[in-house]
Specification:
By secondary structure, this protein is mainly beta. Helix content is 0%, strand content 58%. It is built from no helices and eleven strands. Strands 2, 4, 5, 6, 9, 10 and 11 form a seven-stranded mixed β-sheet that branches. The chain has a four-stranded antiparallel β-sheet with strand order 1-3-8-7, with no helix packed on it. It is globular, with a radius of gyration of 13 Å.
C-alpha cells in the first residue's frame, strides 16, 4: 500500500504564493510518476502538474509559467510551488502517485485564492 499526505494549502490573496508538499510512504517502488491534480466545485478533477520517473514534466496550460513541480527522492516527497495565484486556481489539490496502472491519492488540501 501507498500512503500520501499533503500539506501546505490555505487561503491566499490573488497574486500570492503557496507551496504544497506531499510525503509518500509505504510500497513506494517502481513509481512511474508523481504529481498534483485539482478539483474545483462542480468540475472534474484535472491534472495540474506531473513529474515522471525519467524526469520529464507536464503542466496544465493554465498553470505553465506560474507553478513548478519538484521531487526530493531522498525524502520521498513531491512539491508544488504555486506563484501568481489566481481566483480560478481555487480548488482541492490532490497528490497523486502512479505505480504501474494503479493511481494512489492523498486526502486533498484546500487552496483558496481571494480576489
Amino acid at each position: 500500500q501507498v500512503q500520501l499526505v499533503e500539506s501546505g494549502g490555505g487561503l491566499v490573496q490573488a497574486g500570492g504564493s503557496l507551496r504544497l508538499s506531499c510525503a509518500a510512504s509505504g510500497s513506494i517502488f517502481s513509481i512511474n510518476a508523481m504529481g498534483w491534480y485539482r478539483q474545483a466545485p462542480g468540475k472534474q478533477r484535472e491534472l495540474v502538474a506531473k513529474l515522471t520517473s525519467s524526469g520529464s514534466t507536464n503542466y496544465a496550460d493554465s498553470v505553465k509559467g506560474r507553478f513548478t513541480i519538484s521531487r526530493d527522492n531522498t525524502k520521498n516527497t513531491v512539491s508544488l510551488q504555486m506563484n501568481s495565484l489566481k481566483p480560478e486556481d481555487t480548488a482541492v489539490y490532490y497528490c497523486n502517485l502512479l505505480r504501474g496502472a494503479t493511481h494512489y491519492w492523498g486526502q486533498g488540501t484546500q487552496v483558496t485564492v481571494s480576489s
